[in-house]
UniProtKB/TrEMBL annotation:
Keyword list, A-Z: Exonuclease, Hydrolase, Nuclease
Protein name: Exonuclease V subunit alpha
Stretches assigned to the UvrD-like helicase C-terminal domain: 22-70
Pfam family, one: UvrD_C_2
Species assigned in the record: Jannaschia seosinensis
Alphabetized InterPro entries for the sequence: P-loop_NTPase, UvrD-like_helicase_C
Keyword Nuclease: yes
SUPFAM superfamilies named in the record: P-loop containing nucleoside triphosphate hydrolases
Amino acid sequence: MTASFDGRSASYLFGELDILVLAYATTIHKSQGSEYPAVVIPVLTQHYAMLQRNLLYTGIIRGKRLVVIVGQRKAVAIAVKNVSGRRRWSKLREWLPGTGGVIDAGIGTG
């Protein structure tokens, strides 16, 4: 069998196929509510918009036995310090009946 890794081919004999392991990738957003035996989280300054504490935390708690953060220390520091997140324009205020445009407890601020 021949497998392609980033455009490079590698050939395997039948007796060597057990060393190949399937791997899957997903986003932190799509992984919410799930757990995985191992999680690898790339954290790079090039993805500045994604460097948010809540995303990093959510990614970390998905791993049951192993979590590996790959990237730059500076990027991790930025993510840990960034608690702002993006403002969400959900129209929740307009959709909830009887709120009169006001929702208590700070919910639906946008």
